[in-house]
């Protein structure tokens, strides 16, 4: 355990307190963190999880308790930890970002964004080191540092694009109902990222997404498309038979 506590030591959330002695210089969600990011001209590394999340503990043990990884994170970002059970509002926004950018979501939720809260990278669990085609925390941090220093305009353009798309997806900002084209496009996206061998969507690690399965069941009922039912049944059978 790291000897010196970070700012999470003053929080009430059990999940945040679990990370209070990480060598990562965690900030709770708040204006202090965003002001620091702007003052030091750094992007934000946002990690969202909860106390009983298996992969949250794995990533915490591999990366956030590790001195080498923490040094890279602290040098590159202002790091923020959020308990999704304490702040479901924040979790909901950035889970939508992750699903929009990657086609899937889960916890721990990893978001990299500008100091004015515009995200440009999203993922779930990340290992310390890159492996099996999956980018690790250290390599990701170094890559983002290089992009931030050398291709800032590219990052800001991507961040603005993501923020604009997120506003379009927000029903409060939408002036029209979702039409058949949007529904069929969503189904096509699910079909494209469906794992035909193991069920679920996207690559591992995967997390249950009840709303996705409900969408597919409604799609099957309305359009009688057998593929929609197959994706649901395959996913649920694989979960029931072993996770």
Short synopsis of the structure:
The protein is of the alpha/beta class. The chain has 10 helices and 5 strands. Helix 4 runs parallel beside helix 6 and helix 9 packs antiparallel against helix 10.
**CATH fold descriptor of the largest domain:** Glutaredoxin
As a whole number of angstroms, the C-alpha radius of gyration is 19 Å
Total number of beta strands: 5
Structural class: alpha/beta
The first-to-last residue Cα distance is 32 Å
**Beta-strand percentage?**
5-15%
In N-to-C order, the SSE pattern is HEHEHHEHEEHHHHH
| CATH second-level architecture of the largest domain | 3-Layer(aba) Sandwich
The biggest beta sheet is recorded as: 5 strands, mixed
Task: Tell me, briefly, the overall form.
Answer: globular
What is the element layout, followed by pairings?
Blueprint: H1 14-18, E1 26-28, H2 31-40, E2 44-49, H3 54-64, H4 67-76, E3 78-83, H5 88-102, E4 109-113, E5 119-123, H6 137-150, H7 152-169, H8 180-193, H9 210-223, H10 226-240
Parallel strand pairs: 1-3, 2-3
Antiparallel strand pairs: 2-4, 4-5
Helix pairs in contact: 4-6, 9-10
